[in-house]
Amino acid sequence: MTAAVSAPPAPRPSTARRVLPLVLAAALVLTAIAYPLSSGPARDAVSWTIVVLGSLLSVVHAGAARGLRTAIGLLVLVTVTAVAFEAVGLATGFPYGSYRYSGALGPTLLGVPFLVPLAWLMMAWPSWVLAERLARPVAGPTRRRVVRIATAAGVFAGWDVVLDPQMVQAGYWTWSDPSPGLPGIATVPLTNLAGWLLAGLVLMALLDLTVARTQAGRAPRTGDAAPLIALAWMTLGGALAHAGWLGLPGSAAWGAALALPVLLAVVRRHRGGRW
């Protein structure tokens, strides 16, 4: 007589794995709320804190959801890609257009302030996570991967549409020739958007490959609420701040226009899913 042996249930994610990304997301949101309410050196400190919290959230969530190797791969890949694109951009004007950073952003590597790769890290992982969710219904792994990379690059570039005018207003960088720009945004040229789309496609293709080769297990080990909260607040919350406090109605309108269709797609396709 033999006894039936059932497979053990999949382990539930630990409390720390589930809670820590959410704590970082909440801290990020609260700090971002303080940005339009501050000024001078205090606003600079808030900017640094936002970027540090956002980049830390990305790495922590990648590790919690996909494993330590993915978190390390994300950190190394985004840092190297960001410094490479930004250093070339500063030296040649390609692919963003001609621009320069101010001294307010602190120490640099190859002319690129340390804060900049952290900002890329803050933006890149939530963009990929959202795209991964939106691409799930697409049939076929190759088509799904193409849609995932293109969507992530679009979200990545769209985030910058809101961020860049705010950073120019703060004096962190300036453009030699900001025209032509998007309607309502007079301080940032269209070449910047084209450059972010190109950089996003390269980065997201490499990130997609990195996740596929490094993730532990076949499915995320915790939900995606934390990076998606960060993404939603930094776009829609940023648009609100631009309209109500920062005097940037053009970027506010673009932020809302770019974010709302994505939010509607998330609600429609993933209602009732684990977040």
Largest β-sheet summary: 2 strands, antiparallel
Strand content: under 5%
What class, by secondary structure content? mainly alpha
Distance between the termini: 45 Å
Give the overall shape. globular
* Quaternary state of the chains: single chain
Low-confidence stretches: 1-11
What's the count of strands?
A: 4
- Count of alpha/pi helices: 8
Protein name: Carotenoid biosynthesis protein
Keywords: Membrane, Transmembrane, Transmembrane helix
InterPro entries: CruF-like
Organism: Blastococcus deserti
Structural description of this entry:
This protein is mainly α. Helix content is 69%, strand content 4%. The chain has eight helices and four strands. The protein has helices at 15-34, 40-66, 68-92, 115-135, 141-169, 190-214, 225-244, 249-270, and strands at residues 99-101, 108-109, 112-113, 173-175.
